[in-house]
Design a protein that fits this description.
Blueprint (H helix, E strand, L loop, with lengths): L2 E4 L2 E3 L2 E3 L4 E2 L2 E2 L4 E3 L2 E4 L3 E4 L7 H9 L9 E4 L4 H4 L2 H7 L4 E4 L1 H10 L6 E4 L5 E3 L4 E6 L9 E5 L4 E5 L18 H16 L3 H11 L6 E4 L9 H12 L4 E9 L4 H14 L5 E6 L5 H9 L1 E8 L1 E2 L2 E2 L1 H13 L5 E8 L5 H12 L2 E2 L4 E4 L4 H25 L8
Parallel strand pairs: 8-9, 9-10, 10-11, 15-16, 17-18, 17-19, 19-22, 22-23, 22-24
Antiparallel strand pairs: 1-2, 2-7, 3-6, 4-5, 7-8, 12-13, 13-14, 14-15, 20-21
Helix pairs in contact: 5-7, 5-9, 6-7, 8-12, 9-10, 10-11
The protein binds MU-OXO-diiron.
The site of MU-OXO-diiron has 9 residues, from helix 2.
Length: 406
């Protein structure tokens, strides 16, 4: 079912209610792959969908126009969730010219046989007239791939923002005001934490470039179209892309026989003793990487713990650290902790990993031989307090702007 953004511009994408995994990200509310049809004197399709849903996309286009009359297909990004319907779409639209960035020739050329496709490379500053409306292009490399770009329609103040400002939400409401706003902002937070964080510098540059555009509507490639709550999502993106931090300390741990869990709880007590600092405890094996990354996004402090197994941290703790390192949640105050038996190694491995995460340890690892006694638990409380005090300094300096969902 299509939806009209403004007269002559329709959503023609696919709602994937069933998908729960998006390269490891737990999409617990499903997802959408958004495509848009712009009808003017000339007609343009903005992006496509995942390959298996090409038929749905083409049916929706056919309900609005003859696919053979489509003049342009814009590919803003070559990742297969948006491009793998291209072969079917280009076959059904023989008169269309594919518009994409120079870098997209690499990704699209690797994925698909482009022989016979009419292709025109576009970049920042280029535009194509559809008649009364224009498609203006803005390259946004690394938001989310090197090939990424956004397409702006100045006459409608409409930005097709590709992955930027997306959320993984399957819903019958295509617009932000047709869904609960707190849910959308939370899903935008999960999406940013798990997909966008490594490219925050580029996102901040894009926001600055886009600040010169008059924007009334942002139509991303995933989730709802922002038309009523732009200020909320733009404020959130300023926080996240500029690495602004909340007065929050995350305690994340894995435990073998409960000793490291006891230490984690004592650290939480120490954090909670500092007024104004929120403590959050996440047990790695009863959570998932998606939740852990989301909790890390705005945390100014992270206490990371593991029991020792085979002179190292537990495997699930290592997975969480690897994920966090890749997502580049840099600039946090940190504390390593954990238990050991006859051989040390778990908390030490964590402490060593902080350098690669670019986290600043407030002290050396807090360790417990087997079960923590009162002395160790007191040490945990003191370390938690020290971590919270440093996190408070970092958060205060960062200038985080509170969101509706805080
Ligand atoms: Fe939604 Fe980077 O693809």
């Amino acid at each position: 079912m299509t939806a009209e953004l403004v007269k002559g511009i329709h959503w023609v994408g696919y709602v994937d209610w069933a998908v729960r995994d998006f390269h490891g990200y737990n999409t617990h509310r499903g997802a959408t792959y958004n495509a848009y049809l712009v009808q003017d004197e000339k007609t343009a399709l903005i992006d496509t969908v995942k390959g298996p849903y090409a038929g749905t996309l083409l049916k929706q286009v056919a309900a609005l126009t003859d696919p053979a009359k489509v003049d342009y297909v814009v590919c803003n990004h070559g990742e297969p969730d948006h491009s793998s319907a291209l072969p079917a779409v280009m076959a059904a639209m023989p008169n269309a010219t594919l518009l994409c960035s120079k870098k997209a020739l690499d990704s699209l050329g690797a994925y698909y046989d482009m022989a016979g496709w009419k292709v025109q490379v576009v970049g920042t500053g280029d535009s194509v007239s559809l008649g009364s409306r224009t498609l203006a292009f803005l390259e946004t490399p690394m938001v989310h791939w090197p090939d990424s770009m956004m397409t702006y329609v100045p006459e409608e103040k409409l930005l097709f923002s590709m992955d930027g400002f997306g959320q993984h939400v399957a819903s019958t409401g295509r617009f932000d005001d047709e869904n609960p706003l707190p849910m959308l902002l939370e899903e935008a937070r999960i999406y940013y934490a798990n997909i966008v964080t490594p490219y925050s510098g580029k996102v901040a540059e894009t926001l600055k470039a886009a600040a010169g555009l008059d924007i009334a509507m942002i139509a991303p490639s995933h989730g709802v179209i922002w038309r009523s709550h732009l200020a909320d999502i733009l404020k959130a993106y300023r926080n996240w892309s500029e690495g602004k931090l909340k007065k929050k300390v995350l305690v994340v741990f894995d435990t073998m026989w409960g000793s490291t869990a006891k230490m984690a709880e004592a650290i939480v007590e120490g954090i909670a003793s500092v007024p104004g600092v929120e403590a959050k405890l996440v047990a790695i094996r009863s959570s998932d990487l998606t939740e852990i990354a989301t909790e890390m996004l705005e945390a100014a402090g992270i206490a990371f713990g593991s029991s020792t197994l085979n002179r190292d941290m537990l495997p699930m703790a290592a997975a969480a650290m690897s994920y966090a390192r890749g997502l580049r949640f840099t600039g946090r105050a940190a504390l390593a902790f954990g238990s050991y038996g006859w051989g040390t190694g778990g908390p030490e491995a964590i402490d060593k990993g902080f350098a690669e995460c670019k986290w600043e340890a407030v002290r050396g690892p807090v360790k417990s031989k087997f079960k923590p006694d009162d002395k160790v638990l007191d040490e945990c409380r003191a370390a938690g307090r020290d971590l919270a005090l440093r996190a408070l300094e970092l958060a205060t300096a960062s200038g985080y702007e509170p969101l509706l969902i805080d």
